Amino acid sequence: MPDNPIGALSGVRVLDLSRVLGGPYCGQILGDHGADVLKIEPPQGDDTRAWGPPFAKDGVASYYMGLNRNKRVQHLDLSSEAGRDALMALLPQADVLIENFKTGTMERWGIGYDTLSKRFPSLVWCRVSGFGADGPLGALPGYDAAVQAMTGIMSINGEAEGGALRVGLPVVDMVTGLNATLGVLLALQERARSGKGQLVEAALYDSGLSLLHPHAANWFVDGKTPRRTGNAHPNIYPYDALRTGTDPIFLAVGNDRQFAVFCRCIGVPEMAQDARFADARSRSVNRATLKEALEAVLQAFDGRTLVDTLMAEGVPAAPVLPVDAALQHPHTLHREMVVEMEGGYRGIASPIKLSRTPASYRHAPLTPGDRFEHKD
């Protein structure tokens, strides 16, 4: 049994003033691990309440529901004096403030970081933005897809013969939320020593660039502009989706031993001795020839059965599943990766597993609140 079922961040109080994805995702992670999160929304609510269909409870979009559990919600108009007064009444108890207003908005309201950090020196202020506050693109608005385009992500995503393609989920927004969470935890750790808060910045642009491995590393070494390689890894092979006699499988062979075992499993052990494929460098250079040879052999195999065989032999392989099958997979259930809460809420659970202070799920999205639960 866990020592503390409330979570590792029990007693940490968070004001989540953010909207859309990056900031709310950070707030949900903190809330999952025990922080008391009070989400402050404008009177009309977070924009993502209307980002559907589908729509769930009270006509609120599923998009919003996936990012705002373990929070209680209060509506304040921070452009009004009354709304700002209500926020100021909450700040003395807050440990963390998360915001992603357009740069200069909170300053115009007289509640920017430079002003409030003097009044609340222990406050950890987390700012999520598109491009940061300054520089050639500073203070400009940023959205996930646009940042995917600008940071090179789209240029290396998609089939080799096709055009640049957006990654099919908001990966930049989500990684920015993770970076924001890491920054908050680092700042709280440092505050335990110094007693002082600080500004944590997480920008979509920076986070997008940080995702470019190994393409950036390749460019730094050889100066060649990375190209799209479809499902294939740019550096190693076979690390690709391959056709079989039935369903395609994804094969992730990372070393010579795995390749030899793979060749044995599909009945062509001699292929691992072929000079064109005998080591990682050769397999990568000769990938087109290798793919053609492998798919010719794999036509005799059932994809799902072959995956089971390969995994049992220590060769990383997987079926290519749709979302519904992944969410209903027996291992998904075993790992407790689906949360069900009162009122019909279902969502993806926290992937962070702590043995003594695990995540907990206390508030479904849209739970009302006007003050913190934990008091000094």
From TrEMBL:
This is CoA transferase. InterPro entries: CoA-transferase_III_domain, CoA-Trfase_fam_III, CoA-Trfase_III_dom3_sf, CoA-Trfase_III_dom_1_sf. Keywords: Transferase. The lineage of its organism: Bacteria, Pseudomonadati, Pseudomonadota, Betaproteobacteria, Burkholderiales. The keyword Transferase applies. It comes from Variovorax dokdonensis. SUPFAM superfamilies: CoA-transferase family III (CaiB/BaiF). Its EC number is 2.8.3.-. Pfam families: CoA_transf_3. It comes from the Bacteria. GO terms for molecular function: transferase activity.
